[in-house]
Predict the 3D structure of the following.
Amino acid sequence: MIYIPYYNALALPDVSCYFQLDFLNGQSDQPVSAGDKVLFLMLKTEKEEGEIQAEDIFPIAVRGVVESIDNQWALVHTTNRVNLDSIQVTGKSFRLEMRMRPDIDDLDPDEKKERFQKMRAAMLQTFQGSQWMEGTRSQMLRWKNMNEIVTFTSPILRISNEEKYEILKEDSTAKRTELMEKAFYESLELYKVNSEAQSAQQETNEKLYREQAIRRQIDYLQKELDELHPENITEIRKFEQKIREAGMNETARAEAEKVLNRMKQEGQDSHEYGMLYDYLDFVTGLSWKKENAAEIDLDEARQVLDEDHFGLKKTKERIIQQIAVMALNKKQSGSILLFVGAPGTGKTSIGQSIAKALKRKYVRISLGGVRDEAEIRGHRRTYIGAMPGRIMDGIRRSGVSNPVVVLDEVDKLVRDYGGDPSSALLEVLDPEQNSTFTDHYMNVPYDLSDVLFVCTANRSDTIPEPLLNRMEEISFPGYSALEKFQIAKRHLLPKAMEKAGIGETDLAVSDEALKALISNYTMEAGVRGLKNRLDTLCRAAAVKIVRDGHQTVSVEPADLRGFLETAPIRHDHILEVKNPGIVTGLAWTQAGGEILFIETLFTKGEGKMTVTGQLGDVMKESAMIAVSLVKSMFPEQASLFEENDLHIHVPAGAVPKDGPSAGITLTTALASLVTGRAVSPEYAMTGEVSLRGVVMPIGGLPEKLMAAQRAGVTQVFIPEENVDDLADVAEEVREALTIVPVHYVTDVLRQVGILPQN
Ligand code: ADP
């Protein structure tokens, strides 16, 4: 008897299987020959032979006979199952007592056959084409029953040894067949699922190989193309190098390379080529490198600011604070300053000085009239003529990643069909978002977090709230005549002379001439007009110097008209004659402060009121309040309003005027009209008035007072609550004017002589 210890495999009766002769010989005492009996022992656990103990063996085994020996192979046929009643193991030898265990054959032979064939077909189909199948196909075709399939595949069936033993133990052939089918088909399904997963993996691998192959192919074709279009090569090589050296982030580099690849495929004459060229030119022209902040000496910074600009003390102090905070935080940007003031008050140019003080590059980006979001954020490249937005364009002009950017005229953004540019601007300015600002044209993020933004505006009330909230407002009230004189003398005139090529000794403009030029030829809060006048003057002087060979051209007040070729401005000078019903008011416009005249007149009629001079709704309401107030203060004259029509006019009708601050002027003008007492044109006033006659505070006081002084007013009435604002008013303006804070309208009426002085 040859014992065949089987672990993991299941031997069933009526199966023919081949064994290597060497293997069988190893199990028996003498060489194996045909007719020898064998016993298949099923093991519970894997064991080295010889170490097998009695308890390792399942108590049912299968007997067989060696049928034939063919070369190195022995064909064994199994016959029947036996119960192992006792098992003794000594070393390699087994002593067993066994008993036949007959099958109960309760399965119809036809059905048995049918189910066997089904199983074999399933097997053939599942393993079709597999290597394993090729080696065993001939054997499979020889199979006669299901036992053979299960015995043969038992080492790879996905069931435990105990379950295999359950099959062996089953006496009923019908039930055993069921058990075998269950084990077999389940294992087959598992195999299928596994192999599907495997082939999916294989597919991805194949895709990768394919991709690499295609890339190699593209490289090869590229070389061919290069040879066909040698003219493209230099540009392409140039961009290749630039992309490599630009220090772009991952995304940007990938995009640039993609564009470059497309460019390589285009001929130089194609429209596409131009677009791709522009794109690469733009992105590689940007600075992608992180710039180090320069060492800043606060005293030096202050000196730079002082050198470039006269006055502006508060602003300069605030800027120095900002620089200090940035140095402490080790950051290159900080809070966003918003400079608000009339044109020519130095907002933009001090922005430039900030850059100089920080030793950083400066760019100015004008936002005036921007109505399309794309102008901020760029056009998508699908557009013909697509362009980057103004922000990225500015950054590119600066050539660095940390410039000081002055965003000019943020109050002039227009919300339109093209989206909301201010929300795009919000993204630019928001430190939470701007490190990955994505311009649509570029289509890749750019880090704006090191950019120092400074905004300018003529007024802050038109700036959308969310934007305004992110900024720190600093107001530029404009300059007094004295400040303008200093600015002209120290900065504007020397610059104008230099621009016109005039040497220092060639032109002498007297202080009086400068002052006259300021007061008679300019009318503004800032110094832009003044600068233009000085430029004109220098150009005229240059002609004189060249033509007449003058040694030194000197300019006195009387010469101004000749040099400037214009008559002096008289526009906002106070009136010379006084008339009842006409009073001087003070207004604030985008150009700074201005004086205005309120004219009132009764005409024959029946109590109608006409208002002219482009007055806004608020100002019309002020007029109605003034009428009511005057009627109640002068009850005896109240009937005048019923018997006549009232006409209120504010000259300079081309300029729209609105706001409540003319209330006090309207009331005074009407009081003057009904009483027939004229008010001296040397008085001017500003303040909102309530129905009770209380004078309420107004804005823009510094600008208004400067305008009053410019126009030759001597006494100004202001709301009591505005007294604190006087600190912002230049000293010489305060000195030149008698400033009278008032609480009630009656205070004014008394002082101008309409009501008796107590
Ligand atoms: P804004 O931006 O407020 O319209 P700018 O900054 O363009 O005004 O100023 C107009 C001109 O006036 C510039 O040439 C500027 O150098 C000059 N300027 C304005 N304020 C001063 C000042 N305080 N000192 C010297 N020059 C000044």
User: Anything to note?
Assistant: DSSP finds 26 helices and 24 strands in the chain. The CA atoms of residues 661 and 688 lie 5 Å apart.
